[in-house]
Amino acid sequence: MPFRHSTLLALLVLFCQGVSSGQLLAQSGSNPPMMLPQVAPNMPAEMPVEMFDSNAVSGPMSTNASATSNQLLLQQYQALQTSGTFQGTGQENASGENCSTCSGSGVSGYDRCGCNIELFPWISGPGSSDQWCVGPKWEVDAGGLIMFRDDADWNRVIANVGGATTSIGQFDPGPGGRVFVTGYNDSGFGIQVGYEGINDWNANLAFAPVAGTTQEFTYQSRLNSVEINFLPNVPSVWKLYSGFRYVQLDEDFLDNTRADRVLPAPADPPGTSQTIDQGLNRLLENRLFGLQLGGRRDAWQFGNRLTLQTFANAGVYINRFRREDIDLTVTTTISGDDTATPGVTELTESSSSFSTTTRTNLNDVAFVGEAGISAAWRLTPTTAVRAGYQILALDGVADGLTASFTPGLNSDTLIFHGLQFGLEYRR
């Protein structure tokens, strides 16, 4: 036989719709008949008191004016609970059938439709904005990054070239962004999709002119990562997870030598001058594919609003390395003014270029390890500001500066670290 829950559900509907305390008190003296859906039979034996507490941060009501009505609702709920209203195995559906016969699946015999009951099973947990499960739980973390990377070994270049330098620039902190979205449902696990990337690391080195030529080096670096993780939906604050990750590290090392332009003196016939510029460009792509294993500690709570979270992961990857060596020669010809045509300027400049490209593709084993810690200050039951520190280590990758001295893939270890910050939303 179906359970009779209309009185309880009427109170809950009034409560969730934010009825004012005056309206609640006015209706508490009578119970008008209402045709309402049944609640899920596996409702817990005790309703959290915070749901009726007007001072609770996560409660649906927050004004002191509603304190009296909240207490009244709690008393009426407890009276219904002790009157024997909630009975049964918790496995029946709205027609009195056992949930094992339902077409769906899920925890405690419930599928996504609550086993033909419109209301889903009762859930609770950090970040929940509602007391009834009306869909998957979502966590969205979006914000920015300010990351540092290993400095360029310019001393090696200076020793190789010789001569005096006019400027030495190291990598500045690289600005970037990150977005992580996690969804939990009744399947027993959650799926997390994340991206983070920095595309603006630049360093440079310039030498003083020698015999009318100037040599400059430019070092550019970019790091982007995409990952998909599977997280168990367990009550423990410590969670192990696994997933697939793709990391791409691009390293461009540009060596350019430029000759000073020489303007020929006016003559009849006009004279010409020729200069040759050279560029040696080393363009590297470290494309890492692999599986990672990790662990996270959901939250250390300090008071009602401040929480602390840590994570770490590591994995063995395949580095599908790609390299392009481009040798470029640009010849510039300047033709001077012709004195046979006074009053007319015939000064012209033309250039031609020639380049050769050598491509190298290799596969090698690489390692990726990452760890971080962050603090969240909760603004509302669903929203928080977050800031933290993280470190990322890549081993078995090639860097652009080393590639300028040696061919192929010369494995190196690079460290990236810095600040993360942004907004977090949980429901």
Description:
The protein is mainly beta and 427 residues long. Helix content is 11%, strand content 50%. It is built from five helices and eleven strands. It has helices at 6-16, 21-27, 67-82, 154-161, 400-403, and strands at residues 137-149, 165-169, 174-184, 189-207, 213-232, 238-259, 272-302, 306-335, 348-378, 383-397, 412-426. It has a ten-stranded antiparallel β-barrel with strand order 1-3-4-5-6-7-8-9-10-11. The chain starts with 5 loop residues before the first helix and ends with a strand.
Describe this protein with a few key phrases.
single chain, 427 residues, Lipocalin, 2 domains, ten-stranded antiparallel beta barrel, disordered N terminus
